[in-house]
Amino acid sequence: MPEYKITVNGNTYTVNIGRITDDSVEVTLDGRTYQVAVEAPMKKASKTPVLSRKHEVVNAAEVPDRTSPPGAAMDSGTVVAPLPGLILKLMVREGDTVSEGQPVAIMEAMKMENEIEAPVSGRVIQLMAKEGENVLENAVIMKIGG
Fold this sequence. Notes:
The protein is mainly β. The chain folds into 2 domains: 3-37, no CATH class; 75-145, CATH 2.40.50.100. The chain has no helices and 12 strands. Strand 2 (11-20) and strand 3 (24-29) form a beta hairpin. The radius of gyration is 35 Å and the shape is rod-shaped.
């Protein structure tokens, strides 16, 4: 057992510290053993900054539908994301004329760049995604019409 000398009110005592549990210590003082209750030391305030974010709940009715439900029928001019990923580059603008099979966008999915091709020939009617935007699988990227 570790032995300590302590001074209380000018009197010096020899103290042996025995078994320590969560909230008590076995102390031997002048040959007598005591179970002493111990309180946990006060914790110092942490110097590590704490990140606090405001939790914002979005009204689902106000969020535009960016994906098509499973099994939904799409017209032949709808260009969709084959996988979830990041739109790196849109190679066309609204009003541009495209040919079937022409690359219209490049997206990064699963650490690979994928060219997305026009499914039909026609004019780009509407761009639904933006460069730098993350999209889900089957998200509509653009619409091409006759």
